[in-house]
Amino acid sequence: MRARVVRQAASYLLAYPDERLVERLPTIRAALAEHRVTSLDEFLDHLAATPLRELERQYVDVFDLSRRHALYLSYWTDGDTRRRGEVLAGFKAAYRASGFLVDTAGELPDYLPMVLEFAAVADPEAGEALLREYRPSLELLRIGLVEDHSPYADVVAAVCATLPGPSPKDRAAVQAMVGGPPTETVGLDLLPIGGYR
C-alpha cells in the first residue's frame, strides 16, 4: 500500500502544476505522512512556498526544454524510432487489459505520471511490471535531475525506491542493468535501443 501511495502522489507531483495540484497538496502530504513517507517533505514544502506561475516556469524549464529529463519512459530506450510505435501500443494494450480508461489526448501512453497512476490505482501488478521493465529509464531520469540540482529529483527517487533493490549510483551502473553492447543510442547516448527487452 505504501508503494501505491507514493506512486499516486508522484503521478500528481510530476504532472504540469496547476490549481488542482495546489489544492491537493494537503491531501498528498497527509497520505504520505500516514504511511511514514518523509522523502517528499522537502519537495512538498517547495511547492507550497512557490507561487504557481513560478512552479509552471520551473516545470517547463526542467521537463519541456531538456531531453535530459524526458518523462516518456520509452524515449530512453526507443527514442523516435519506428519501434517506439509498437512499444507505445504495448502500453495502451496494458491499460485496456486492466480496464483503465485513459484519455491520451496530448500525452503519449508512456508518460510517467500516467504510468504511475495506472500502477497506483488501476492495476498495481501490471503497473509494477511496467515500472520494473522501464527501471533504467527511471534511473536515468533520476540521475539527470540530480545532476541538474532539480527538486524533482526527490520525486523520481521516491518512485525508484518503490522498486526492488537499490538505485544504481551512476550511468555506468544503469548501463550494466541493461546489459549487452550498445547498438544504437538515444537521448543521453547511454541506453541501447531495445537493449534489455
From TrEMBL:
<dbReference type="InterPro" id="IPR020945">
    <property type="entry name" value="DMSO/NO3_reduct_chaperone"/>
</dbReference>
<keyword id="KW-0534">Nitrate assimilation</keyword>
<dbReference type="InterPro" id="IPR003765">
    <property type="entry name" value="NO3_reductase_chaperone_NarJ"/>
</dbReference>
<dbReference type="InterPro" id="IPR036411">
    <property type="entry name" value="TorD-like_sf"/>
</dbReference>
<protein>
    <submittedName>
        <fullName>Nitrate reductase molybdenum cofactor assembly chaperone</fullName>
    </submittedName>
</protein>
<dbReference type="Pfam" id="PF02613">
    <property type="entry name" value="Nitrate_red_del"/>
</dbReference>
